[in-house]
What we know:
Blueprint (H helix, E strand, L loop, with lengths): L10 E7 L10 H13 L9 H4 L14 E9 L2 E8 L4 H21 L11 E5 L2 H12 L1 H4 L8 E3 L1 H5 L10 H4 L5 H30 L1
Antiparallel strand pairs: 1-3, 1-4, 2-3, 2-5
Helix pairs in contact: 1-3, 4-8
Amino acid sequence: MRKIRFVDGEFYHIYNRGVDKRNIFLDGFDYSRFIQGLDEFNSIKPIGSIFENSFRKPQLGNQVAKLVDVVCFCLNKNHYHLILRQRMENGISKFMGRVGTGFAQFFNLKNKRNGVLFQGPFKAKHVNSNEYLLHLSVYVNLNNQVHKINGQNNFKSSWKEYVVGEKGLCSHKNIILDQFKNKKEYEEFAKSSLKDMVERKKISKEMESLLME
C-alpha cells in the first residue's frame, strides 16, 4: 500500500523506469504510443484499449471528463517523469494503471516478449509548494539536459509546448506560464534553474566518488 495519499487539486511528481533499468522506448513509435496513452486513457469513462477506442466516434474539443491534468512530461529511453494534478478521487492511480498496463501490453506484443516492463509500481512525490512546482517543471521539461542525453530520438518532452507554443498534451501548462510575463521569461528562469541543477548533480557525484575511495 502506498504511503502517499493522492488529494484532489494537488500536484504530484510521477515517475518510473524500466525493470533492470532496461530501455522502454526503442524508437519514435514507442514514444508516440506512450504519449497517445497519456491522452486517451485520461478519461473518467474507461476506453478499453487504444485499439478499441480507435473505432469510437471522436469527442468534440475537450468535452471528455478527465482523471488528471497533465502539467508537463518527459520520456527518456529508460524512464519517464510527469507532473500531474488530480481532478477526482483515485484519478492518478486509475490513470497511471491504465497508461502503464496499456503500454506494457503494446511493448511486449511489439517486441515478442513476456513479463513486467516497469520496475514495480510508479513512484510519486507530493509537490508541496509553488516554488517546488516551478523548479520541478524545469527538471521535467529539460530532463535531457540534466542527464546530458543527446539526440532527439532519445528524449521527448513538453518543452516546446512551453516555449514555442506547440499544441500537444499539456493543456494546463498555463499553471506554470501564467506566473511569468511571457514564454521568454519562463525560458530564462528555466535556464537559470537548470544551471543550478547540473551543478548540484556534479557536486553530488564528486562527493559520492570521495566517499567510495
